[in-house]
Input
Amino acid sequence: MNHDFLKELNKDQLAAVIQKNGPMIILAGAGSGKTRVLTYKVIYLIEQGVDPSNILMITFTNKASTEMKERMQKFFEEDEITDLPTISTFHALCAKILRIDGERIGIPKNFLIYDSQDQKDAIKQAFETLGISMKEYKPSSCLTAFPEQKMS
Output
């Protein structure tokens, strides 16, 4: 086992990476190395014998998810480990789960997730279909009104 990567960590980061028992939380500001700590923690676990298929790395942002995947691939590219842990954002993981099992709760496998531009385009299309003037009513106003109505 090659633990040279651990030398890149400060004392607190190292403690987080090598902790073996129980849950833990890492609270740190932007740019402090959270993604590196989480990635190295998983690398350490794999080197300790944990099956990568039993590991789920989950984050909020696509940027962090991509960074974790790239670091893992780079680290293991010369080893015989070809199966990496599942690395995902919360949203992507939930979408995947819903595509697999969503029909059990009435969600079709081919459901769509609209980003903000998709939402604006759908509202514009609805305005055109209903003959509503986009000069009189702004599609973006609807986007802010919908969540308010859901809360009422």
User: Anything to note?
Assistant: The radius of gyration is 22 Å. The mean pLDDT is 86.
